[in-house]
Amino acid sequence: MELLSSSLVVGIPGGASLFVIAIIALIIFGPKKLPEFGRAAGQTLREFKNATNGMMNEHEENDKKAIEKKEQ
Q: 29 Cβ partners below 8 Å, 6+ apart?
C-alpha cells in the first residue's frame, strides 16, 4: 500500500526533468525569446510579492488600530 501512495504524490521535478523541460522550451521558443519570458516571469513574481507584502502590512495596520481602540 505504501508503494501505491508514494507513486501518487507529485513533487518538485528533479535535475534531469528540469533539463528536459529546458531543452523543450529552447526548441519551442528559441534562444531569443527565452530571456524575455524569464524577465516577464521575474516581473510577475516581483509584483505578486509586492502585492502580498502590501496586503500583509495593511492587515497588520488594521490589527494595531483595533488594539489601540480596545485599549482606549
A: 37
